[in-house]
Design a protein that fits this description.
heterodimer, A: mainly beta, Immunoglobulin-like, five-stranded mixed β-sheet, three-stranded antiparallel β-sheet, B: alpha+beta, six-stranded mixed β-sheet
Chain lengths: 109, 139
Amino acid sequence: MADNVRPRVRVPDSAAAGEVVSIKTLISHPMESGQRRDGDGNTIPRSIINRFVAAYNGETIIDVTMEPAISTNPYFEFQALIPESGTMTFTWYDDDGSVYEDAKDIAVG
Amino acid sequence: MTLTRRDSLVLGMGALTAGMFLPKIVHAATEDAIAAFTGGADMGEGGITLTAPEIAENGNTVPIEVSAPGAEAIVILATGNPTPGVATINFGPMAGEQFASTRIRLAGTQDVMAIARMSDGSFVQARQEVKVTIGGCGG
């Protein structure tokens, strides 16, 4: 439904074992709130990303349930624990059933 | 003690003083949202930090930060929005800190609340008023 949805994540390439690193994510999405009306007075139906999950080697970092009060192009910054080398995965779930994914590798050592 | 609008302006600290003395207006929908998260448990203070701008020129994108060391989950509520829920953040084992930063929509000047559920099952809350110049709900 939503066009041109593009996830962008900023993750360090490497980290020390046990280091806590800052992760920034942004995904382009209109996040139509369902509160707005078009020119004819009809309500524009809600169409948002309702859930965002970040995980490292399969273990959850954060799992966010999102409501329409999250701004257009949802942005999240959070802290992740990096015990060993691995892959960080990012998953966004759209109201229309679409799933957007991204992944980044982090090397320890 | 009743403070009129003029009195509080005369007191000099207009907004700050009024905010301290005027009763907090919490909508029923907000109370429902709080009860859904806490199950009606009492909420303490402290242990949670909510960082939001005092004045937001554009209610469409207001940067906020929440931090609650030792929290399992944090819920963010905008008490003056058509629907108060903003986000529920659950922290997993790989969370380095119980911290998150995002951008939210605010329909107008209102209190933003954050409630954290700690690992021992207790709840703590923080709230901050954000003055919004242009609301962020279209319409």
